[in-house]
Amino acid sequence: MVKANVTIDGAAFREEGWLVMRGAIEPGELAAIDAAVCDVAGWAEADGPGLHHFEQTDAGAVLARSEDFIEHHDVLRAFICDGLITRVLGELFGEPAVLFKEKVNYKHPGGGGFAPHQDAPAYRFIDHHISCMVPLDPATEQSGCLYVAPVPDAGSSTSPGRGSMMMTDERGRIDESLSAGLAWRPVPLDPGDLLFFDSYTPHYSDTNSSDRPRRAAYLTYNAASRGDFRDRYYADKRADFALAGDDFDGERVRISIIDDFLGRPAQR
Q1: Which residues contact 13 (CB under 8 A, 6 or more apart)?
Q2: What is the pLDDT of residues 161-205, one digit of tens each?
Q3: Cystine design at 13: which of 19, 44, 126, 244 (Cβ 3.0–4.6 Å)?
Q4: What distance in Å separates the CA atoms of residue 199 and residue 183, rounded to the nearest whole number?
């Protein structure tokens, strides 16, 4: 349910590439979503449905991410596919939205962060998406909140302007020389807040150095007129992982199509 005081600043989103909505989800709905995510986490430990990834921390192997689960949970499917988020996205896209992928990042204490990147290289088939971060625990600088930055003004191949790809390295991360010059800012969030950002918004996060998890769902959509590619995306990702294995050079977990996650391969 949308709170009465929630407003959608589409102009700010188009200008910056991200939009924060504070206190957008009512406590009762948030509690139901939290319980549903606990169900999904339990599936990972019991060989249940979904696609799950683990990482190694100093305290042992922990669950890093779950994805591809909406067919198996009515509460999450209703929230993700027919709720507040899709209504907001209808305004941001200017047309109905369709789900492209869904995931939960658990970020347990010591859980790895993500190097500076844009999502576009990892999201095949369509050139523009909008994601919504739904925090289930406080996202603070200590617990590894997201940092975002505007794309530099257009004018060169390395500063292509809003809605464009920045130069990346061979791993799909934003080139370090460019990342160092971006105007990064942290986006602390509380449960009930929402953060919308598009697939060209530079972002990263640090390791969780707190003593509590920093769980958050990341829900990615595209404009409905572009087509429904969710099934194809997951089939493609599973095939890639089956071919390439579950890590990058034995040093980092293969959690995405690009090598942006800094978590260590789990020893289970």
Answers
A1: 19, 92, 196, 198
A2: 456 889 999 999 999 999 999 999 999 999 999 999 999 999 999
A3: 19
A4: 18
- Do residues 115 and 255 touch, judged by C-beta distance below 8 A? no
In tens, the pLDDT along 28-39 reads 999 999 999 999
Which domains can be identified in the chain, with CATH numbers? 10-265 (2.60.120.620)
Distance between terminal CA atoms of the chain? 41
Q: How many CB atoms lie within 10 A of CB 226?
A: 16
Higher pLDDT, 2 or 228: 228
